[in-house]
Write a structure and sequence with these properties.
Shape: globular
CATH superfamily of the largest domain: Mur-like, catalytic domain
Distance between the termini: 38 Å
Strand content: 15-25%
CATH topology of the largest domain: UDP-N-acetylmuramoyl-L-alanine:D-glutamate ligase
Radius of gyration: 22 Å
Largest sheet: 9 strands, mixed
Helix content: 25-40%
Number of strands: 17
Length: about 450
């Protein structure tokens, strides 16, 4: 490590100590300061780690958490960025916060990385493995179309051609570009194959080779499944790791089988089973045996803001992050797993981290909510008016929709007339409501 990097590391660690001692902490500021002093500091910090990068539109945080729990069954030194601070300065902060490795020991770093940050960190991290979870339309103002997002990912992979790519084989896009990297695939193979049609408003169902519409023999959600092209022969690759059975889906957990291994995770939804499959696949590539992975998954907890359960005045509240149409639709499906009457709270912000363009709410299937047993609906956030209009257009009774200030959301929950409450919040709205819940003692 150079003198400049050593100084940057010391100042970054001192900044972190100050934040942890006198405030609630800060996940990215220490890294920002250290990187300003020594732009290449990440190379030095990551030198003693085998790095796994997890990237994609949805599922990065949960996949990272499950991967960490699985790897800890075999490896003594596993580092990760658990707060989801997944841009360059946050990743530097993660390494600054880690304890010093014993002399001669190597660690494993499991890092969630924002797609837009890949090019800034890959050259420093020199990853051993990339995990590509999925690509869906997300924050158009930041990333553009799905093909632009995928280019960010492939450009990064080409920078480290010896790194293995572990990709979602059920996504047609992940097989559309020839890369120098060795590649493994995971996906679903849990049903008999039969012809099925995606929803007419689904992105990414054109053959990447001949641009005809793809056909499907199995469909999980959105454009994911066993796809094939009748015109040019393009089809889903052979899967190296696969879901062979869905054993149970409910509002609090999911049970499933990966080949001959039965697993359970403390979150619901097909999208989280994909996350678990990705984590299982990483662990197997790092020689963790299936029984140890089962144990690791049992130790996993819900990730903040993702199906986070808590109680307010004996009311059961489920907080879910929503940020794009596909993720929103999966959360709406999840809510439908219970037939209990509930109060709906939808909070819509449009800060940079949320995406300033909120037109995506019109592509989400809010209409499905209209068939659910909603007692009352409350809208809030920077774009309250747009959120209210979207629920009205979806068919939810306008008389049951109320606009509230964000500062009054907890009070609203305390006084609501149902035992169950579902909160759908964009990223900064989720952080804001969590902060208020912590202040009130409802969350730790």
């Amino acid at each position: 490590m150079t003198i400049r990097s050593s100084i940057a590391k010391s100042i970054g660690q001192l900044t972190r100590w100050g934040l942890m001692t006198f405030t609630r902490g800060g996940s990215s500021l220490p890294g920002k300061i250290a990187t300003t002093i020594a732009p290449d500091i990440l190379s030095s910090l990551a030198d003693d780690y085998d790095v796994i990068i997890i990237t994609g539109t949805n599922g990065k945080t949960m996949t990272t958490a499950l991967t960490v729990h699985a790897l800890k069954q075999k490896y003594d030194y596993v580092l990760t960025n658990p707060t989801g601070s997944n841009m360059q300065q946050g990743i530097v902060s993660t390494f600054l916060a880690s304890p010093k490795l014993p002399k001669g020991q190597r660690g494993v770093a499991v890092l969630e990385v924002d797609e837009g940050s890949l090019k800034h960190v890959v050259k420093h991290l020199q990853p051993q493995l990339y995990v590509h979870t999925n690509i869906f339309r997300d924050q158009m103002d930041r990333y553009g179309e799905i093909y632009s997002i995928y280019k960010l990912m492939t450009d990064a992979a080409k920078m480290t051609p010896t790194a293995t790519i572990l990709a979602n084989g059920d996504s047609p896009l992940f097989q559309s570009t020839e890369l120098p990297n060795p590649t493994k695939y995971f996906g679903f193979d849990h049903e008999e194959l039969q012809d099925v049609m995606p929803h007419y408003n689904t992105d990414g169902i054109l053959c990447p080779h001949c641009h005809h519409i793809l056909n499907y023999k199995l469909l999980t959600y959105a454009n994911l499944g066993h796809y094939y092209c009748q015109h040019c022969g393009f089809e889903r690759p052979e899967l190296d790791f696969k879901i062979t059975q869905i054993d149970d889906l409910n509002l609090t957990e999911s049970s499933f089988t990966i080949e001959n291994t039965k697993l359970t995770i403390p979150v619901a939804g097909l999208y989280n089973i994909y996350n678990a499959l990705a984590a299982f696949s990483v662990a197997r590539l790092f020689d963790v045996n299936p029984e140890a992975i089962v144990t690791g998954f049992k130790q996993a907890e819900r990730v903040f803001g993702r199906q986070e359960f808590f109680e307010i005045n004996e009311k059961k509240v489920l907080l879910n992050l929503v940020k794009n149409p596909v993720g929103l639709n999966q959360v709406i499906d999840l809510i439908g797993l219970s037939d209990e009457k509930f109060t709906l709270i939808a909070i819509l912000n449009n800060r940079y981290a949320d995406g300033t363009d909120v037109s995506w709410i019109w592509d989400g299937n809010y209409e499905q909510l209209a068939s659910y047993p909603i007692k009352e609906s409350y809208t809030s956030g920077m774009k309250t008016t747009e959120m209210t209009l979207r629920l009205k257009v979806a068919g939810i009774d306008p008389a049951s929709i109320h606009e509230v200030n964000e500062d009054d959301i907890i009070k609203t929950i305390e006084n609501c007339q149902t035992d169950y409450v579902h909160i759908l919040a964009t990223y900064t709205a989720m952080l804001d409501i969590r902060s208020k819940l912590i202040d009130k003692g409802y969350l730790k």
